Amino acid sequence: MNVVLNKLNTIASYAAAISLVIILLVTSVSINCFDPDFYKSEYKTLQTAQDLGMTQKDLNLATNTLLDYLQDKRDNINVEITVQGSKVEAFNSKEAAHMVDVRSLYHFAQILRNMAFVILVVSCIYLLVRLKKGAWTVLSINYMKAAILFAIFFIMLAGWAYVDFDAFWTAFHHVAFRNDLWLLNPSTDLMINLFPAAFFSKLVFRIVMMFAIGFIGCFVGAYIYLRYQLKHYQAETQELSHDA
Q1: Which candidate in 10, 189, 202, 240 could, as Cys together with 184 as Cys, close a disulfide (CB 3.0–4.6 Å)?
Q2: Whole-number Å distance between alpha carbons of 123 and 126
Q3: Distance from C-alpha of 142 to C-alpha of 138, rounded to nearest angstrom
């Protein structure tokens, strides 16, 4: 029975660790993808409005339409803007179809984060009931073990993106989408002009940096806690040996 319970403790602690990593990653994606200041900054740096012959107001309108659609604040991306002095629909049918896929992907990420949060809470409650104060020690140890494996994987991905972002971004789309709607044409599709490779490269970097801060912060916190526990245990052991 003890063997089974010990295995359950290990499973619960690893489930909590993996769930925490998922929560950190999806939260970083959500925060950065919906940060209006980032869009304004990048549009200014890339001179997007000038290059496309749009006013900043119309540029913001097109962008906010897409972001609102992803967050279910509107049912479509139909919006009129002025480009090169002409009133036109901002996005065509291909872009609209692609955004359906993007919204589905975003919804999946949100569901995954919510499930991870539930698993994290349930796992922690289970370990606290079973192990009391020892739960934090088990969680810290197994988070650090899981984090090392995740770190290797994420460092490899980050290195790939840094060396050849286009290849990385293309591979991501092949994995994330089952069609070629994401292959947009700069001559006919506004979306690819709003968000060129340079834009997404900066966005991915911001996501990685925010995620890394939380990820490493949890690792450092676990390490400090274990160091404290070890010193506390050593002090108690020495005290007992002196008493003996």
Answers
A1: 189
A2: 5
A3: 6
